[in-house]
User: What shape does this take?
Amino acid sequence: VDSELNGGEGYHISSIGTGIDRDKGGFERLFSCYASSNKGGGFDIRSNDNKFFDAYAETGSGIGFIISGAANDFFYSEANGFTGGGFEVSGPSNSFYSMTVNESSDGIDFLPGSAESAIFGGDIHNNSGVGINVQAKDISLYNVKQSLNAGGNFTSTGTLERAIGNDGIQDVLGPSVA
Assistant: This one.
């Protein structure tokens, strides 16, 4: 599914109406979604309990992925070249397996409502802002590689539940947690 050259987001997925929530009778899995060169962001996901396989967002003036839904799983997601940031997560319990963010303003912002979200493997590099910004509680980072983020690799006003094997944030967290 490709969405290119739109005036707004590439995908706007909402649980209002039929949405794609399995409880509402819609889809529960999306495969190979590609959003490129949209004037807004790539994905605006307000739906819950969905699985996204190979979701790509490239080049836009907004945010690559805005996720306010809960308990979504992203199996390989990538955001490149967004002036508003790569990922902005405000919904709880979202999981990212193999995330890539580069050449955006910020890599990923875990906003206050995104408690218990996690990244399992990732590469966040060459962003003009911060690589990972944690403003929520109980965020977990497993094997996330970060480098060359101009605003630093990691900032936090929230709490990490776990941080295991993360390149680029050991200098902030110390070797005992990173």
